[in-house]
Amino acid sequence: MKVAVAGCCHGALDKMYETLELLQRRHNVRPDLLLCCGDFQAVRNEADLRCMAVPAKYRHMQTFYRYYSGEKKAPVLTVFIGGNHEASNHLQELPYGGWVAPNIYYLGYAGVVRFRGVRIGGISGIFKSHDYRKGHFECPPYNQQTIRSAYHVRNIEVFKLKQLKRPIDIFMSHDWPRSIYHYGNKKQLLKMKSFFRQEVESNTLGSPAASELLQHLKPSYWFSAHLHVKFAAFMQHETSSKEELPKATKFLALDKCLPHRDFLQIIDVEHDPNAGDSLEYDAEWIAILKATNSLINVTQSTWNMPEKNGLHAKWDYSVTEEAIKEVLEELNHDLKIPCNFTLTAACYDPSKPQRNVEPVHTINPQTTEFCAQFGLTDINDRIQQAKEEGSGRGECEEEEEEMDSTGSAEEPSEYNTDNSGLSSFNPDEIMLDEEGGDEDLSTCSVDPSPDHPPEFSTSFSDIRIMPDSMAVSSDDAMDSNNEELEKSGGSTQVEEKSSTERSLKRIGGDENGNSGVKKIKRRNQAIYAAEDEDKTD
């Protein structure tokens, strides 16, 4: 089947779906599934905009609300993960995943689903070591810290994913797995994005948690976004025994949405021709959720996952075939995910703007139903209980931050770096700490412009159909179109031909074991985020 993969959508759903329609008209290619690698921005109303960690001038309503209200429907099944610029209050309603609109499915903090027999997994958010070992304690209304920490990856999600034993076909993360740049055309990457050099050379670019998952899961495909550049790589995994068959992962990072032409890719994926067209639960993943339910933490307390170190009675939470069979029996062998989308917030009305509406903590009926069906803890219900009991651990009120201005805490961590993206300046990213610093979150400077969007043109994008090899060329002969794109600032024409197939090879460059964070001379402090250094995807 044909799978379309998109980078950072940034709420531009109309343009994304129009691009797919253009693809069908010009190339007679119609994807069966669309995957989006974060920064989807499922913004329903003005309150959601206030829960996005971006300066006010970037808070645009865009077009998701039209799909949420039912005015429009996604023309292709869309599955996405969260990034670092999301309506966090909306996505938080669905920690285990669910429908954010008809035909648009969110994978949750971490999740695995099936479509036509293809197993698709993903993890939302970006990595920050100072929040990695905390629970999911945040809830709206957010303060200056929690509006960022809400989208930071947690160790429990990585731990759950590491319990998977069955093969994964496709995996998505927002930030790149650390070290993946050593398996592609590193020279060309640095030619296009020279400000990546220090992180690449010190081996601190990307997420160490995602790298750990890549080594463990060994999926056939891994897709990412976040850094706003297209990059392909091929990673041959080491085998643990002579009996184990060699495995390899084809990695692809996509650019952000329009006007960039490398934000969308089409690949052919082998599927089960006898499988149905519905999105399905993954039985092993459901069994893992049940097995790890007791590990859920909704406090700010830091803790490590169970491991074989003599401190834990149990450290292996992978599931048996019997446990998977029990899940199948619970569902009567019907794994179809119910189409139970429910409106949980008022939809934006262009004729009646409400700039001062407050975000509220909402319990989503989809999550309630899912948890009841499988005997799981509703994380939001647990947070709500903590608030009502006045325990202080699940409080959403602003608390004294126990970190320094960079967010670093004096605590041990299994990772000794704190870079999820770049510590150097990336001109393609939205900075959280622009001139004047962060604005007061009690006010919302909204600039909704959905009724007057930029005029859509049928010549705005370069859509490429990915060859089977997901090829990476040599250092001296990488896709010249990318270099031209960098110089021109984006093409406005659709290429009429697919990219040519090139042989895969690992490009040179030793993997640097240096895990320390190098200090950078910050000549212009205004271009760095003062607290979190979170980047736009």
UniProtKB/TrEMBL annotation:
GO terms for biological process: mRNA splicing, via spliceosome. One of its GO terms (cellular component) is nucleus. Residues 235-380 form the Lariat debranching enzyme C-terminal domain. It is found in: Nucleus. Residues 430-441 have a biased composition (Acidic residues). Residues 414-426 have a biased composition (Polar residues). Keywords: Hydrolase, Iron, Manganese, Metal-binding, mRNA processing, Nucleus, Zinc. GO terms for molecular function: metal ion binding; RNA lariat debranching enzyme activity. InterPro entries: Calcineurin-like_PHP, DBR1_C, Dbr1_N, Metallo-depent_PP-like. Residues 386-537 are annotated as: Disordered. Coiled coil: none annotated. Gene3D superfamilies: 3.60.21.10. PANTHER family: LARIAT DEBRANCHING ENZYME, RNA LARIAT DEBRANCHING ENZYME. Belongs to the lariat debranching enzyme family. This is DBR1 enzyme. It comes from Donacobius atricapilla.
